[in-house]
């Protein structure tokens, strides 16, 4: 696996631990959850999934790191407990001050190694046991449903609130897009019906963008749809960059969030190699949710 004897596949340094914690927390919808970490010269991808119905990916591009020394051949993968990874990262997140976290893989026993490299008072160090990763159970290759994208962008806070309001245990949620008038409808069925409309003509501040050339409708299991927003940290909701939802071929739903990975605004001696502080950086999060059933009005998409 290693590019040379004894040399790690990756040594990288991060100056915004809290931003990475926020990104990984967003895809942590269960207490005990395994993740697959894939390394490449372009950065890290963390993948989690459940029962072949929902999959999430966090993209940490190399530009998010102040140092990224990649020496592996190919793309090494390893399995890790997502909860343990987040908890360990949290120990390196100190309110009120910035810290530089070094991440190294693999250690002598194939562990993931974390170390604070700029702590003058103490040596803060953690090792996380890794394992041979399980095979990702389904292909996340996302294909458009037609020549015109079926997509809309809504404020993250509004999306989370809408999905929370639609809670019917064990039920499914219908998502319907219609071009005239341009609108998105979320509809839940349980002991009664609840419908939430996002109308672009009524509130342009809420529905930021909308593209749809024909009516389309699909149903999604509530618990999997809820996983796409249930654990987004309040700091991300407050940032409110907007969440983009796209319906692809066969009704596959893609939900994309952006999480700011910026340096804490506190004095710190570290600057990047170019001699200036980098602007706000973004971690990309994608969820893929399979539809529960095929709707008649989407038969021509298959």
TrEMBL record:
Subcellular location: Nucleus
Entry keywords, A to Z: DNA damage, DNA repair, Nucleus
Organism in which the protein naturally occurs: Penstemon smallii
Coiled coil: none
Gene Ontology CC annotations of this record: nucleus
Biological process, per Gene Ontology: DNA repair
CDD domains: PCNA
Family the UniProt entry places it in: Belongs to the rad1 family.
SUPFAM superfamilies with a match to the protein in the record: DNA clamp
Database matches in InterPro entries: DNA_clamp_sf, Rad1_Rec1_Rad17
Gene3D superfamilies in alphabetical order: 3.70.10.10
PANTHER family per record: CELL CYCLE CHECKPOINT PROTEIN RAD1 (PTHR10870:SF0)
Protein name in the entry: Uncharacterized protein
Region forming the signal peptide: none
